[in-house]
Amino acid sequence: QSALTQPASVSGSPGQSITISCTGTSSDVGGYNYVSWYQQHPGKAPRLMIYDVSNRPSGVSNRFSGSKSGNTASLTISGLQAEDEAHYYCSSYTTSNTLVFGGGTKVAVL
Amino acid sequence: QVQLVESGGGLVKPGGSLRLSCAASGFTFSDYCMSWIRQAPGKGLEWVSYTATRSSSFTNYADSVKGRFTISRDNAKNSLYLQMNSLRAEDTAVYYCARDRSGWFLVHDSWGQGTLVAVSS
Q1: How far apart are CA B92 and CA B42, in angstroms?
Q2: Which residue among A45, A57, A100 sits closest to B114, beta carbon to beta carbon?
Q3: 3-state class (DSSP) for residue A21
Q4: Which residues between 51 and 80 in chain B have a beta carbon less than 8 angstroms from any beta carbon of chain A?
Q5: Are B8 and B114 a contacting pair, CB within 8 Å?
Q6: What is the DSSP track for chain B?
Q7: Degrees to nearest 5, angle at CA B64 with A44 and B74
Q8: Cβ(A73)–Cβ(A91) under 8 Å?
């Protein structure tokens, strides 16, 4: 199972909105609404930000939102803040009954 | 609060074995499915294995570790394990223990701090 495709890096200025894409196939992202997004700061464990495409766990800021169209899922961060600078990973269930992650996107706040 | 603490990592030679442990607290361990997820140095996340609430009921593995790794749990001890055999250089990674909130292995809402496994001669 190949990793989902994410851009290596995305950047934005404080207050702006950015969107991170996560592209798979009909065997994973496109076939199920089981896409999650995780935030990881350097040296730290990942943190769940979005699950089931667009649901936010309690405690996660509403500046984070998720969506999906076809084989591509997206994470949007609005009102970008310095603390949002981190790596972000998407994940999806697959028809092989496994879980696949994206390669990760480094978000830089300019 | 939910706490997951991994242990058992270290340096091992290719072909060797290692057993990782994860001690859980702050929640009813037996109610949750659990996974191991790893991250090679400077790389992304890779799901490794999952066990249902009772390890005798259902387990699943990534193709990259199938036949070499075995996941298990002891609900009486609130502990998750990963027995790793026939280790390869490409198994070098930080191994995270993660709790699932989906009732399966799809959504991991709590993670440990990780334990580093290095496979090298």
Answers
A1: 11
A2: A45
A3: strand
A4: 60, 62-63
A5: no
A6: --EEEEE--EEE-TT--EEEEEEEESS-GGGS-EEEEEE-TTS-EEEEEEE-SSTTT-EEE-TTTTTTEEEEEEGGGTEEEEEE-S--GGG-EEEEEEEESSSSSS-EEEE---EEEEE--
A7: 65
A8: no
CB A48 within 8 A of CB B107: yes
Per-residue pLDDT tens digits for A29-64:
999 999 999 999 999 999 999 999 999 999 999 999
Summarize pLDDT for A2-22 with one digit per residue, the tens: 899 999 999 999 999 999 999
pLDDT of residue B113: 97
Instruction: With beta carbons under 8 A apart, name residues in chain B contacting A104.
Output: 44-45
C-beta separation of A49 from A37 below 8 A: yes
Weakly modelled stretches of chain B, pLDDT under 50 = none
What would the pLDDT profile of A60-108 be if each residue is shown by its tens digit? Answer: 999 999 999 999 999 999 999 999 999 999 999 999 999 999 999 999 9
Question: Which of A93, A99, A100 is best to mutate for the B interface (most B CBs within 10 A)?
Answer: A99
